[in-house]
Amino acid sequence: MTEPAAxxxxxxxxxxxTSDSLHLGNYIGALQQFVEQQDTHDAFFFIANQHAITxxxxxxxxxxxxxxxxxxxxxxxxxxxxSTIFVQSHIPAHNQLGWVLECTTGLGEAQRMTQFKDKSAKxxxxxxxxxxxxxxxxADILLYQTDVVPVGxxxxxxxxxxxxxAERFNHRxxxxxxxxxxxILKATAKIYDLQDPTAKMSKxxxxxxxxxxxxxxxxxxxxxxKSAVTDxxxxxxxxxxxxxxxxxxxxxxSSLSGRPVEEIVAEFEGRMYGHLKVALAELAVxxxxxxxxxxxxxxxxxxxLERVLHRGADAAExxxxxxxxxxxxxxxxLRR
Length: 336
Ligand code: ATP
Ligand code: MG
Known about the structure:
Layout: E1 10-16, H1 24-37, E2 42-48, H2 49-52, H3 59-75, E3 83-87, H4 93-102, H5 107-111, H6 114-122, H7 128-142, E4 148-150, H8 156-173, E5 181-183, H9 218-226, H10 244-257, H11 261-267, H12 273-299, H13 302-331
Parallel strand pairs: 1-2, 2-3, 4-5
The structure holds adenosine-5'-triphosphate and magnesium ion.
Residues 15-16, 18, 25-26, 29-30, 151-152, 154-155, 189-191, 200-204 line the site of adenosine-5'-triphosphate (ATP).
């Protein structure tokens, strides 16, 4: 018999609604872990539409992308009966706690976040929200008394801040929060851009050529993999420093096939980069086609998706409501 979900450690994570399709980095670094955790954890996964507006978004596009992201969660294997799937803005307690945590965070602390530095350098107009985003992210996590947060490497620093804020608050006002642990899988925590294998694959990257979107048409997907930048030399070997391009392809191959990198390197011994690309293109098409088809099918029935998100919001609100009531009492807000 499986253990009731409520007795398991709680897992929570989110993905921003910032593109029409998630990319392979989101899938391998985050979503695949979400799917695994729904059998071992009390799982909460949300679509971060509020984080999305830290940079400019078109309203109609943001609404559509919120549903598209939900469809991809389910298309990739999240089961609404086993995971609580919800939209960040449906739960006002994220903002309520976000404000309290903004007042718990030092200005210098927020300014030190490398993601803030990177994204503010890329955008002409830098919103205050881009700076305070990590406090809202801490609220997303701490509201749910989360034990583990499955994320990619780029979120490590934000998770560290979340832990510090939880400890700081608990110390000052009495225990309100579980201090969460990040779950960052070493091998797959950072998938790189296929055209620039030293940069993270990103939804907000300038050109889509180096990004594999999980909803790419099979032909386009295969083409992108076949035109991936590789390295000097001819030998297929895993070496992040000397062969970043090939190492990235090997990481993706390993993750999609569930086989260790060494085994793949051995299989391709004496063969050329082109062989690896052709095999990977085939594997990726095979792995992503069912996901893509399920997602497109789900998108044909937006009313059903909205019902799933509505039920998710009800379940999430029950947990979040308890935490925010306790936090409001602890900071000294007069009850209504
Ligand atoms: P944006 O460019 O809009 O920030 P993003 O591609 O970074 O988009 P997010 O929604 O910010 O995607 O991140 C969702 C999850 O995917 C996070 O857990 C993040 O760590 C993970 N992730 C993002 N990019 C990668 C990547 N290249 N490799 C592994 N994990 C990644
Ligand atoms: Mg990001």
